[in-house]
Request: fold
Amino acid sequence: MLYYNFKYELKILLRSRWVQLISLLLLGLFVFAAFNGELKIAKRKAQIVQAREIEKASDKKIIALLDSIENGMAVNVSRWKNPTSPIAIGNYYPRVAAMDPSNMGFLAVGQSDIFTHYVTPTVSGDDFALNYTEMTSPIQLLFGSFDLMFVIVYLLPLIIIAFSYNVLSEEKERGTLRLLASQPISIRKWVLQKLILRFFCMSLIIMVVSAIVFVLYATVPLVSFLSFLGLVFCYMLFWFSLAFVININSAKSAKNALSLLGLWIVFVLLIPSVISQTGDVFYPIPPRTEMINELREHKAEATKKQDEILNNFLRDHPEYAINDSTQSRTYWHKYIASQKLIKEELEPLLTNYEEKLAQQQAWVSKFQWISPAIITQSALGTMAGTTKQDYTNYQNQVTAFAEDWRTYFVPLLYNNKTFKKSMYKELPSFTYAANTTNHLLSSMFILLIVSLIFILLAMLNYKIKVKRKGMVLLQ
Reply:
């Protein structure tokens, strides 16, 4: 009976043009979404390449100037940008600290339309004032980007709903259910078999379409491609399990469609919004304007006491005060010392800001299992390397690099040493280490368990309902 059920169901799908229509629709959506994501990745790469080219041109210029100066030749350069001054090198010729996009970055734009992919820390700059954000259209931020993550999380469930909402109700409306009931199979098993066939068809289409997309836009290991397919299949299984629940508990196609659309709104829109809003309520992030005002106040106060701050700084760092009577102290000596004090005084405020943000992220992670859409979106974002956690990891690495960059030049500044051509190769460089945290397996496991629970509960509920009506099913 199982073989004939699959055989005739497949014939019905092919004759109704459902398989052909869904194949073309998914191919168009996947290719366009991947193309859109790849355009953004290409733009990011071009920006990083341009910044590195500027850095290389600057390096050649500085090396040439240093070589001329060391050979006793006159150079035409501003006093503030004289390359023999360590502070000039540290401020006007910084390194590019870039976050290169991953090979699967086209999957999800994620946070990349909010955060920039490169910054250039300087000696006199503030770690907490580094510009990680860029100007973005508020309309785009509201609706998001049309990428593969959007297609999979938001649109794919709607296609599944249209493909499976009337599996049983259509038979009732046609009057063929009585004939079906005469066959040696229970209704719930018959519905489950039809949905399994439709799930298989959708999985095959997704596999072919995804293969085309990855061949066109990505060069990734086979395991990465299979991981992507596994996640999508698990997410699809969840929506097919909901379709099974609704089909065997409702008698009308219109009611089925409205019920499944209502569940789509709940799981895809409502629950994620509620979790996000409750996180903002329970763990409110202090306004950034508060930090900016606090920074300005501390800077104004520190400017008035720069001489005192410098003396205290040299008292705490005697290695910089050796032969102090023969050394000159400039504006930069006072400024660097005051910046260190400001950073120490603002540390509690910055720590509180970061803790609140981490608590919000932990809150979302804690309840993400309630919505498969959140689980899938988070997993896809992790695969693409564009989640908030990825950019937090990048910011932490940049902050550490900025400290290394400053630490290299401060001793040269306070000991009044000149910068030489031979030192250029010793300058600190930045290498981004991608976030290796991956919850893909746990995400897939949760989706599988939730789907199986829905199917088992629906079958049990249907069996109980039938027994209450006094019906006898042929097993």
